[in-house]
Each structure stands twice: as C-alpha cells, then as structure tokens.
Design goal:
The protein has helices spanning 3-23, 31-43, 59-80, 90-95, 97-120, 125-135, 168-183, 185-196, 204-236, 244-247, 252-266, 271-284, 291-322, 328-351, 365-373, 379-391, 397-433. It is mainly alpha-helical. The chain has one domain: Na+/H+ antiporter like fold (Up-down Bundle), CATH 1.20.1530. It is globular and about 60 Å long.
C-alpha cells in the first residue's frame, strides 16, 4: 500500500468522524463501533511494514497517545458537568451520591473480582492485579453515548448555581468516568510494586500513605489551584486583555489541561485527577457564561479526533496479530467484566441503602441497573497497561494486551448497541413520571 493510499484511508476516516455522530444519533450504532470496525478492515489490507502494529514494540507510542486522549476527555468531562460540588456544602456532596458509591464500592470490588479471576485462571498475582486495575475504570473517552451532553449556559437564567443534570444515569456515569481514571492509578502502582518489590508487607505502608493518599491529594490541590487562578484571570482580571472569556478564546481549556497535568506530575500528584479537578473548577466560575460552551466544544472536537486515531489503530492491531495471544481465559475475562463483574458491582454499590428517588442523586431501580451496566472499558485501560509494562517486563504482557483489546471491543459493541434504546426508554419513563 502506497503512502497516498494511507492518506486516502485516513482522510475518509476523518470524514466519517465528522459525519457519524449526526448520522448515527437515531440508531443503536455508535461511532466507536464503526471506527473500530473500519480499523479492523484496514488491518486486513496489505499494509506497509511500518503500519503493522504490535503493542509490545510500540508500547511507548501507545502510552503517550492514550495518555493525551484520556487527558483531553477528562478536561471535557470536567467542563461538561453542571452539578456543583462545594467542599463546604454537604448538600452538594449528597447530590453526588451515585458517584461516590461507584468509586468507593464498585471500583474496588471490580478490581478485586477481576484480579481473583485472573489469579484463578493461572496468572501471577502481580499480573492479575494489573489486569483488575487496568480494566476497573469506566472510560471518559468511549462513554460519550451515556454521558451528559455538555455545559448548560444561560446568561439570563436565575439561580444558575442550582443548575443540575436532570438525567441521573448520565450524570453518574460521567462523573464516575471523570474521577476513576485517576483513582485506578494507585492499584496499577500496587501491581508494579508486587512484581518488583516482593511481598505486600514490604511496601504496603508507603503505598497507602503516598500512592493512595498523598498523590491523590496533590492532584486535587493542583487542579483546584490552577483552575481557580485561570478562571479568575479569564473572567475577572482587571486587565481587559487578560479576560479571555470576553474575547471568546477557547484555547484556554487546552492550556489549562497541559499546565495542570505538567505541574501535577512535576510535584508528584496524579495528573488525571488534577485535570478533571481543574475542569470542574473552571466550570464553577460564572456558570452562565457562554465561554464554557466554547471551551467544551474545542475540547470535544480534539477528543473526537484523538479517539478516531486510537480506535482506528486498535482495530488495525486487532486484525494484525494483537489478538493472537487470546485464549479462552482472556475471552472469559472479557465476557465476565462486561456482562457480570461491573454490572453486579455497580448494582450493589447503588442499591444498598439507596438515596430516595425524589432527591437529587436518587436513582430508581431501572436507573440503578443502567448505571451499573454501562461501565464502558476503553482508552484508559490501554494507557495503564502500557505504562505498567514500561515499568516492569511482565511475562504475560502479550496475553494482557490481547485480553484488554478483546474486552474493549466487546464493551464498544455491547454498550454501543444498547446505550441509545436503554437511555431513550429511561428518558421516556422520567417524562411520564413528571
């Protein structure tokens, strides 16, 4: 295949990325499904040697591309959420009840269940824990079909501080995806420590104090600080030239993303958490300003482009040997986490002493089942596996790549087909109740 043919293929793919969201909006087919399938078809063509993708050989490139994609998605999620969260207001914390439940209960249960399953299937304990940690977070990149649409802005509205998402399922999944990508990192670190430092007793104290608590606190602090400073400058600077909100310059969101991630990583915090926190902090300033919608639009377009690249390459890799190490054990893990582990863990988290349906954050039984089921696996999983494999040579690496690729593909297919009809039915039920 010539270089011109490669340009033609990717040009057509870019065109699809532009038109697919509108074309597929009314159908039970998602853009990620089409793009993954297109990549798989391209992978079957006689490709140049440089386009035969082996995730082990291009691990560093996979890590960086997936990292950037997740970061852009996290900034978009932070800017999209309308529901306020104030450290000093317990009412706002209660409104985020589904999020805390999914993070504190469903995520650890998922990690433990997948790790135990992998261990039972013959994986070394470190590899099993890495599998559970990498597959535990819901993905902010591929979960667009089940997330909130974007920031609600209305400069003439009253009580903008009380603007809230009406769709509790979408809010729960969006806010969960924004936070759990960073919260999975301590457990990825734990897998690397288990493989390199030996028994848990040798490193558990430092891991809890620094990797689980310290780096998380730093990430939140950096995200809040950078977001507060940039919002103050953009909206309220005494110098008009610095009030970017009045100028409508949306690239502030990209600048905030890069600055926040870089600073957080330099001082030792979790950059993913910092970027999401920064996005939410900027969103909290002048909630009715149209500038939020402009920033979110730029971020969402960049996210769409990066998602296109990752899904195309993943599809190409899957038909070029990435799945060669897949066996019945990997297939079992993929089916288990998509159809059993995550749905059961999510349902348990949301159903024990549930918040009343009539209150913000309350979910009726059908909504709890939907929020539990639509835990999309995606790009974050690729990043975590690539990062961990770069820290330590796991003997099971090729099997892990095959398993996570199969899991992502199954998640894209199942969740992509069911998201539209299920959420439309829930919306109709909400309207009927209202």
């Amino acid at each position: 295949m010539s270089a011109s043919a490669v340009y033609l293929i990717f040009g057509l793919a870019l065109l699809l990325a532009a038109v697919l969201p509108t074309v597929l909006a009314r159908y039970a087919v998602s853009a990620p499904m089409v793009l993954l399938a297109l990549g798989a078809v391209i992978g079957l063509l006689p490709l140049p040697k440089g386009l035969v993708l082996d995730p082990v050989d291009i691990r560093a490139q996979v890590e960086h591309v997936a990292e950037l994609t997740v970061l852009v998605a996290l900034m978009g999620v932070g800017l999209a959420l309308d529901r306020p969260l104030s450290l000093r207001d317990r009412t706002t914390w209660r409104r985020w009840s589904p999020t805390w439940r999914l993070l504190v209960v469903a995520m650890p249960v998922t990690i433990a269940a997948v790790a135990l399953l992998g261990w039972g299937l013959g994986l070394a304990p470190a590899a099993a824990l890495l599998l559970g940690a990498a597959l535990s977070p819901t993905d902010p990149v591929l979960a667009g079909d089940v997330q909130v649409g974007g920031p609600h802005v209305d400069a003439d509205a009253e009580g903008l501080e009380e603007v809230d998402e009406a769709d509790e399922v979408r809010f729960a999944l969006t806010s969960e995806a924004g936070l759990n990508d960073g919260l999975a990192f301590p457990f990825v670190h734990a897998a690397v420590f288990l493989a390199t430092l030996g028994p848990v007793s040798a490193w558990i104290g430092g891991w809890v104090a620094w990797d689980l608590v310290g780096k998380l606190a730093i990430g939140v602090g950096v995200g809040f600080g950078v977001g507060w400073l940039l919002a103050k400058v953009a909206f309220r600077s005494p110098r008009r030239s610095l009030r970017l909100a009045e100028q409508g310059e949306p690239l502030l969101a990209i600048a905030a993303l890069v600055m926040t991630y870089g600073l957080s990583e330099v001082v030792g915090g979790y950059g993913f958490v910092a970027v999401f926190t920064c996005g939410m902090t900027i969103r909290a300033a002048e909630r009715g300003h149209e500038y939020h919608a402009a920033m979110h639009e730029v971020v969402s377009r960049l996210e769409r482009l990066l998602t296109l690249v990752v899904l195309m390459l993943l599809g190409m890799g899957m038909t070029n040997g990435m799945l060669s190490a897949l066996d019945w054990r990997g297939a079992l893990v993929a089916v288990a986490i998509v159809l059993v582990v995550r749905p059961v863990a999510g349902w348990l988290a949301l159903s024990v002493r549930p918040r009343p349906v009539e209150e913000p954050g309350g979910l009726e039984p059908a909504e709890r089942r939907a929020a539990a089921f639509f835990g999309v696996r995606g790009i974050g999983t690729l990043y975590y596996l690539a990062w961990a494999a770069g820290q330590h040579a796991f003997p099971e690496e090729r099997w892990l790549w095959a398993t996570v690729a199969a899991t992502i593909a199954l998640s894209v297919l199942v969740h992509g087909v069911l998201a539209t009809p299920v959420l439309q039915r829930l919306e109709a039920r909400r309207e009927a109740r209202a």
